[in-house]
Amino acid sequence: MDVNTFITNINEFSSRYKAWWYPAFEKFSEDYSKEHPNYDYTSYNKAFKEFESNLRNQNDLIGEIYEFIDQNYIVYLNATLQECEKIRKSVTDCYYTDSKGKANRFLEDLFFRYARERALPKLKETSDKTWLTRGLVAISIENSGIDYRDSIMALSDLRKAANEKNIDTSSEFERIAKISSNETPRGGSTPMRQLMAKNI
C-alpha cells in the first residue's frame, strides 16, 4: 500500500465512523442527560462504556480501524518526511463538528487509543517488538493532538513494557523520532520528535 492509498482508506474510515458513531452517541448522550440530570463522571463513564461495547458488538468499526493500523503501519515507517506529514494532516483533518460547534478529532483519539488499548497489551502479552513499533507509529501520527501529557505517559508505558520483556527500545524510539513532527503540536508545547527522543 502506498501513502495515497493509505490516506484514501483513512478518509473512508472517517466518513463511515461519523455515520456509525455520532448519531448513536448523540442519542445516548441526550437520553442519559434526561434520565440522569445530576449525573457524576463515574456513573456516566460506566454507562458510556456499556454503550460503546453494545455498539461495537453490532458492528465493530473501531476494531476494523485497529486492524487497518496493524496491517499498514509500515506505510508510515517507509514514508518520506513530507509523506509522514501528509499522513498526520489527513488524520488531523478528520473531525466531526458537534451541535456546539466543537471539532471532535476522533481519528486522532482512535490512533492514541490504539497505542493504549491494542499495542500496549499485545506487547505485554507477546513480547513482540513489532507491537512497540506499532504503538510508537500510532502516537507519532496522533502527534499530541489531544494532550502532550497523555503522549508522555503512553510513551513511558510502552518503553517500560518493552524493557520488562528485555526489548531494546532505543533503536525504535530513535527510528520513529526521526519521522515524527518537529513542530509545536496542538496539544502541547514540545514537538513529538523531542518527546520520542527523550525516551532513547
Topology:
Elements: H1 3-35, H2 41-58, H3 61-78, H4 81-92, E1 96-97, E2 103-104, H5 106-126, H6 129-142, H7 148-164, H8 170-179, H9 192-197
Helix pairs in contact: 1-2, 1-3, 1-4, 3-5, 5-6, 5-7, 6-7, 6-8
Tell me about this structure.
This protein has 200 residues and is mostly helical. It has one domain. The protein has 9 helices and 2 strands. The protein has helices spanning 3-35, 41-58, 61-78, 81-92, 106-126, 129-142, 148-164, 170-179, 192-197; strands at residues 96-97, 103-104. A two-stranded antiparallel ribbon has the order 1-2. Strand 1 and strand 2 form a beta hairpin. The radius of gyration is 17 Å and the shape is globular. The chain starts with a helix and ends with a helix. The mean pLDDT is 95.
